[in-house]
Structure formats: C-alpha cells, structure tokens
Task: inverse folding
C-alpha cells in the first residue's frame, strides 16, 4: 500500500512538473514572438489596429504570468509592457504605474529578482525627464533586498603599462 502511494505521488509530481515546464515553454515561445514583432515594429508607421494587437499580445503575456503566479515571467512580461508604453508610445506615467504594481506583486514572492523592474522604471523616469525620481529609485533599489553589489572582477595591472 505504501509503495502504491509513493508511486502515485511520484506520478502526480511528474505530471505537475511536466505541465509547468510546458507552460514555461509556451510562455517563452510567445514572449520571443512578441519581441520579434516589436523589433520589426521599430521601423515605420503602424496603425492603431496593429498597436492594439501588440498591446493585447503583451497583456496576454502579463496575464498568463500572473495566472501561473510565475514571478520571473511577470518581471519579463512587465518589462516588455513598460517598454512598449514608454519607449514606443510615450506613455511614461502608465509605464511607471505598471512597473510599480509589478514590483509590489513580486516583492511578496520568494526567489524572484525584481532588479529589471527597477532598471526599467529608472529608464522610464529618465525618458520622462524626471531626474529626482531616478535618484530616488536608485536609493530605493540600494535599500531593497534585490541589491547585491559585487566588486568588478579584474586582473593584471600590477605595474604601470600592464594590460588589465
């Protein structure tokens, strides 16, 4: 009886892991497709209908990541959404709000690095011309659990003229 329960538990765990891996692979495929589309949209003029389609594709990525409660996917998707809002459609305030909401959401999740959200938010604020907000974000990031300063690795240079 005990062996049957162990085998059954292993089968359930394997199925759950397989489904999770399949979800991640599907997310990554859609994420790459959206990035490719955005890259091609960087050249030329696009109609409101085309912008609505890309906005929906990006929102679908965010919604999927939130539905699966996948913090790393949330970070990736929200950075793309903020890029579209701020870099491509100068809607800086909306991009900032999206990034702030994502930072609050992933702060509750363990094992998620929200550093990219801070960086993108600083880029958005810089693009909006808000130098004080950028300085405040840097201080907020340095005080956060995500800040992990590492010394710059270098070698050589023990004598003048030595290459680094």
Result:
């Amino acid at each position: 009886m005990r062996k049957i329960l162990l085998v059954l538990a292993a089968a359930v765990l394997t199925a759950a892991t397989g489904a999770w891996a399949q979800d991640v692979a599907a997310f990554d495929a859609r994420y790459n497709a959206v990035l490719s589309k955005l890259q091609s949209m960087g050249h030329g003029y696009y109609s409101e209908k085309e912008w609505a389609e890309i906005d929906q594709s990006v929102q679908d990525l965010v919604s999927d990541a939130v539905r699966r409660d996948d913090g790393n996917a949330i970070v990736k998707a929200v950075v793309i959404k903020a890029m579209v809002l701020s870099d491509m459609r100068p809607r800086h305030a909306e991009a900032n709000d999206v990034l702030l909401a994502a930072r609050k959401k992933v702060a509750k999740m363990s094992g998620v690095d929200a550093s990219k959200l801070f960086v993108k938010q600083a880029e958005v604020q810089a693009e909006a011309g808000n130098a004080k907000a950028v300085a405040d974000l840097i201080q907020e990031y340095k005080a956060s659990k995500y800040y992990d300063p590492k010394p710059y690795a270098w070698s050589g240079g023990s004598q003048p003229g030595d290459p680094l």
In short: The radius of gyration is 21 Å. Residues 155 and 164 are 6 Å apart (CA to CA). The helical segments are 2-41, 48-67, 71-88, 92-107, 115-127, 131-143. The longest helix spans residues 2-41.
